[in-house]
Amino acid sequence: MIFIDVNVPPTPGLPLDTKPWIKGVNVVFDKMRAAESEREATPWSAIVATNFSLHLADENVPAPPVEAGMAWSAHTRHPIPEHLRAAIVQQVVEYGKIPDEI
Hints:
By secondary structure, the chain is an alpha+beta fold.
């Protein structure tokens, strides 16, 4: 798996699919999903791209939510079992959340 934090300023007013950084990542995601044979298999099983940009946000406004995009390779040399995929997706969704109580 590949994890990338793009580290760009937050754009809370834009839907995720219109953000410039996700458009670029989607080009790679589309190629991964379109692989039709083992010949096109990737050495990675998935790519997760996040924008955890709290340090770039204005201190006087609420922190922007973490933005994330994720894609699984259609054909990979290193498949991940479905139950682990679900756990990984859950952790990506929870990324950056701080509990109210410890």
